[in-house]
Amino acid sequence: MSVTPDPQILPLRLPERTVAQLDELVRQGRFKDHQTAVAAAVERLYVEERHDVTARQKAFTRLCGALQLGTTRESLCDAELDRLDWESGRR
């Protein structure tokens, strides 16, 4: 019979340098413990990643809207390849 692990328990093996950095953050009083510091780091990375993805999606949407051609990611790539083929034939 297998035991289902608690989803809130995550065993980690961290490099010595990372543990030393966590220790320093806790010692400086920036975080109350290692768990809080790691949770804050993961939250920050998650927010930054979501922001990057959202910004890229908005930029692509603006580009498609500016062209007003019903452009898709695939058609944009195809158009770029066609342009490169045309330019290489002119040289």
In short:
It is built from three helices and no strands.
Describe the structure.
The chain is mainly alpha-helical and 91 residues long. The chain has one domain. Helix content is 70%, strand content 0%. It has three helices and no strands.
Secondary-structure blueprint of this entry?
Layout: H1 16-27, H2 34-67, H3 73-90
Q: Number of helical segments? A: 3
Radius of gyration: 24 Å
Shape: elongated
What fraction of the residues are assigned to beta strands by DSSP?
A: under 5%
Key terms:
about 90 residues, about 0% strand
